[in-house]
Known about the structure:
2 copies of one chain form a homodimer.
Chain A: H1 2-29, H2 36-43, H3 47-50, H4 57-75, H5 85-102, H6 104-111, H7 115-123, H8 128-146, H9 155-174, H10 188-203
Helix pairs in contact in A: 1-2, 4-6, 4-7, 5-6, 5-8, 5-9, 5-10, 8-9
The structure holds a DNA duplex.
Amino acid sequence: xxxxxxxxxxxxxxxxxxxxxxxxxxxxxxxxxxxxxxxxxxxxxxxxxxxxxxxxxxxxxxxxxxxxxxxxxxxxxxxxxxxxxxxxxxxxxxxxxxxxxxxxxxxxxxxxxxxxxxxxxxxxxxxxxxxxxxxxxxxxxxxxxxxxxxxxxxxxxxxxxxxxxxxxxxxxxxxxxxxxxxxxxxxxxxxxxxxxxxxxxxxxxxxxxx
Amino acid sequence: xxxxxxxxxxxxxxxxxxxxxxxxxxxxxxxxxxxxxxxxxxxxxxxxxxxxxxxxxxxxxxxxxxxxxxxxxxxxxxxxxxxxxxxxxxxxxxxxxxxxxxxxxxxxxxxxxxxxxxxxxxxxxxxxxxxxxxxxxxxxxxxxxxxxxxxxxxxxxxxxxxxxxxxxxxxxxxxxxxxxxxxxxxxxxxxxxxxxxxxxxxxxxxxxxx
DNA sequence: CAAATTTACTTAACAATGTAAATAATCCAA
DNA sequence: TTGGATTATTTACATTGTTAAGTAAATTTG
Lengths: 210, 210
């Protein structure tokens, strides 16, 4: 069926057009500027055409949020060579902080906004990108426990805690809740990294000397 | 000037009418249902009248967000009798988690949404409610350090870390990022409390035995 | 090859939204 | 009572997401 195949291909091409336009708006002007009409304008179709390729706007945001996870994965390429699981975990946290501060709009979409999640819950499927990301953290946590860097326990629980910690830092920062406490914007990331250091020092049982 | 005084009083009465209506909509139907037109409908004025008492919608949300902080303060009334600063801090965290899960819409407004913060940054003033809340945490942290429960260090830094941790938990939970990992909704708060326990155990230097 | 049908797209429209400008009603002092 | 100030409303604009109806072209069918 070369014919149905080409059809499918063309459909995907326009889908990609739409996503590229959405991405351009998203990256250059932020979440709020991604409107159906501006997307349509960019791809030179009528607004309603967009609805022939995506059920609604949330579906577009879901797609963008997946791209965000790919971008985040790039930040984590520097982890491969790190042998020590605790050092790797620390670096993972630093990457997370840096990603969030470098791409706040993406971070927003991935971990804060409701739009991508709506897609998931109505489709009944699960949050694959998030699951994969937390899975990688869990592996490292498990290794840390095995090698005696972290107290033995439920790696899932600890992963959740670590994630919550860095997410808390990033989300407070990018939602302007730290402005009063860290007035100098230049000091924001350093302060967060320092907090991460403190955290890592506290959970590392090999560092405990009192 | 009994006359100008009454004028002022009447003005405040209508302001209160508007805020009460906004609160009703906010509490009963959520953030998205607080629209100028529905507020006007409730108070039986025309929509534009609202603008005679509030510059814009964000100003209303700023007022609501302050009420949220008052509500949160009520949750913390059980702290007064707790002597041990570390136990108090732990309870503070539990209260925070419970408040966030009990009033996700308020939490949203207070710690996630941009609207109330916009008011602040354009007015150039600072985030008083947030400042006060973190201040109380800082006091407790300081006391913990003085009494040897926490390693000595910058209490501000540690407060930020503690806050980030609980905020991370709550915000991930109420923004549906934990659904995949904690499928049973009933287990959400217990899981978060367990994470808090783990956290507290790790930072408490009196508990360290290996 | 002609007719019927499906596909791809557009136009028009609806129902909201926040908000500004113009207009009307009300109130109070002179 | 009159006239200026205050307060409220009417009207309007520019957006938004999204649906329904219409159209033209491509494709399938007879």
